[in-house]
Structures are given as C-alpha cells and as structure tokens.
C-alpha cells in the first residue's frame, strides 16, 4: 500500500519566526496517518528543519539548481539543501515552468542531481486550461514526464513523488473533480508503467494539487490513484492544513 502524503507549498510567504510558530503548532497535533511535508522559502528552511527535528514533519525546498557549486548567483544547490537537513525538493512547479520559464530540460537536470544528492523530488506536471480544452491533457503530461524524467533511473529512485497540478486549478479556487484527478492520475501511473516498469508504477506516489481545501481533501484522496495532496494557499494556515492532514483518506 502506498503511504499518502499531505505536502504544503508555502511559495513566497512567511518569515522564519512565522515558520517556527506554524511548526510548533502543527507538530503538537496527534501523529497523522499520512506523511507530512512542508516547503517554506529557502530563507526559512533552517528554522523549519530545526523546529521539525524528531517530529513527523519533513521539510522540502521549493526548487534547486542543477549544479552543486559554482558562479551561479542567487541559486541554491541540492548538496547545500541536503547538508541543511532538507529531505525533499519540489521540481517543475507550474510557477517555475510558466512564470520563470523553466523548460523540461532544466527540470530534468535538476531532478537528476537532486536524486544523486539523496533528495526526494516532488516532480510537478500539469496542463493549462487551453490545453485541456483542446484535448491535449495526455500529450502535455506525456511530454513533461518523458522529457523531464529522460535518462533518470526511476526504478532506483525509491520514494519518488509526482504531483499532478492542473495549472487552471492552482490558486484559482477551481478544483479538478475527484473524477478528473483520478483520470489524470491513472494515465500518469500507466505512463510510468510503460517507461519505468510495473513495480515503479505501483510504488510511485502521485499527489493532486490545485485549490485543495479541508472540504475537498477526503473526496480527492478517496480515489484509488490519488496518493495525497500538494497544497498551496490552504497550507499557510495551521487550522486548515491540520484539517487537510486529518482528512487525507488512508486507503483510496
Ligand atoms: C500549489 O502551489 O502547488 C498549489 C496547488 O496552490 P493552491 O493550493 O493554492 O491552488
């Protein structure tokens, strides 16, 4: 059985002090049945790692660079993240793809190095509204997966996580229906079976992201191929994220 995950992406919100306060509150909740991952900004990682040490909360970075050191002003490397106690890294988030124009090839290089350094990628894919409306859902996901994960030894990448995040549902209040999510997740799992083998496809966790709230978490995670949620806005508030963690269905 795949253990489900509730992951919070804080984007460019919260100070180190606010990070500590949030983590003090969240770690005092009863231990959940799902894994919990929080992705603060780089500046708050140190506070997050020290405050969550020895608890059920794991810490992710929201991005990383594709080299471990060098003259790359403003970038942070996988090796630095690992040395700071970070366990996961979100890669290919739609804001990285569409606001910062990261290509599948950029994301591929980052993913490769992150895995080599022992970070667990949360690899995001998802279509834009126009692409969905013109019947390109599958071809967009296929391209993001095939180019983004090209050359990566996935069967060796234990605990790899994919996040299906339809761009039109991120920060808009529009959520994919549980049926829409299940359809995309089943396609992604089938695609992983074709490219990385049946064992990997059964093992890989596929999260749904896009306007997840306490009220829609149970229905989404009840679907057999939805292995948890990646939450933006609703992860910023302890009460709402706590309710989301509690609402994640253990079994699909
Ligand atoms: C996200 O940032 O990954 C996200 C899904 O955001 P939101 O939950 O706010 O739509």
CA gyration radius, whole angstroms:
17 Å
Task: Supply the helix-strand structural class.
Answer: alpha/beta
> How many structurally independent domains?
1
The largest sheet is:
8 strands, parallel, barrel
Written overview of the protein:
The protein is an alpha/beta fold. The protein has one domain: TIM Barrel (Alpha-Beta Barrel), CATH 3.20.20. 41% of the residues lie in helices and 15% in strands. The protein has eleven helices and eight strands. The protein binds phosphoenolpyruvate.
Task: Outline the fold blueprint.
Blueprint: E1 5-9, H1 16-27, E2 35-39, H2 45-52, E3 57-61, H3 78-83, E4 88-91, H4 94-98, H5 104-116, E5 120-125, H6 129-133, H7 137-148, E6 161-164, H8 178-196, H9 198-203, E7 205-209, H10 214-221, E8 228-231, H11 238-247
Parallel strand pairs: 1-2, 1-8, 2-3, 3-4, 4-5, 5-6, 6-7, 7-8
Helix pairs in contact: 1-2, 5-7, 7-8, 10-11
The protein binds phosphoenolpyruvate.
Concise synopsis of the structure shown:
The protein is an alpha/beta fold and 252 residues long. The protein has 11 helices and 8 strands.
Key words describing this protein structure:
single chain; 252 residues; alpha/beta; TIM Barrel; 11 helices; 15% strand; binds phosphoenolpyruvate
């Amino acid at each position: 059985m795949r253990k489900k995950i509730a992951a919070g992406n804080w984007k460019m919100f919260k100070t180190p002090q606010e990070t500590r306060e949030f983590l003090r509150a969240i770690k005092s909740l009863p231990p959940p049945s799902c894994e919990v991952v929080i992705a603060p900004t780089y500046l708050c990682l140190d506070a997050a790692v020290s405050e969550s040490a020895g608890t059920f909360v794991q810490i992710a970075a929201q991005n990383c660079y594709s080299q471990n050191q060098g003259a790359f002003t403003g970038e942070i490397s996988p090796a630095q993240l690992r040395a700071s106690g970070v366990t996961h890294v979100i890669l290919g988030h739609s804001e990285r793809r569409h606001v910062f124009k990261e290509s599948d090839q950029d994301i591929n290089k980052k993913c490769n190095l992150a895995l080599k350094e022992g970070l667990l990628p949360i690899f995001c894919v998802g279509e834009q509204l126009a692409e969905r409306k013109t019947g390109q859902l599958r071809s967009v996901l296929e391209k993001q997966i095939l180019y983004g994960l090209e050359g990566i030894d996935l069967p060796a990448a234990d605990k790899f996580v994919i996040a299906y995040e339809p761009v039109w549902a991120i920060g808009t209040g529009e959520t994919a229906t549980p049926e829409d999510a299940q359809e995309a997740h089943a396609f992604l799992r089938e695609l992983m079976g074709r490219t990385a083998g049946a064992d990997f496809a059964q093992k890989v966790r596929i999260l749904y992201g896009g306007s997840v709230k306490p009220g829609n978490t149970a229905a989404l995670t009840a679907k057999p191929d939805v292995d948890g949620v990646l939450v933006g806005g609703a992860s910023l508030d302890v009460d709402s994220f706590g309710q989301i963690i509690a609402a994640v269905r253990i079994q699909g």
